[in-house]
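Continuing the batch. This is chain 6 of the set; chains 1 through 5 are on the previous pages. Same settings as before, nothing changed between runs. Recording input and output for traceability.
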Amino acid sequence: MHIRPSRTSDLPALVGLTIEVFGPFYEQSFRAMVPPDVYEHQHGRWADDYRDFVPTLHDPEHGKHVAVAESDDGQIVAYVGWHIDLERRHGEIDPLAVRETHRRSGLGRELCEHAISAMREHGVEVVSVGTGGDWFHAPARALYESMDFYPVPVVYYLRAL
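Output for chain 6:
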């Protein structure tokens, strides 16, 4: 496994990986949490939202970075995005996506540590990462807590009008 900075040519693979990794959240977890009209409003086009969002993740001139994990055969199997606010000396990891076949191998931790190391080099003093409170995100919560991130409970409500 090799971790390297993202390249423009990686975009199709990153979009596909993001849709593959987060599809179960939208289709199985979030869909079951809310009424159909709220689901459609908030995330009815979730795959298209990622097609628009992922290309904006890597923009080093604006403190946004992506590193990919590439297998020996050249396939991207995971990636991490992070952005840095130099004025606040704050960094945020978002997103972290690991293909199911490569989970529980330490790759997510390795990618987070890569991002944290890069942020530290830029004078970042505090790093944040967010995730969901549902069953889908339980492995992410376990990873972040094992890396000494402190959970801050938040409740987010949705209502159709």
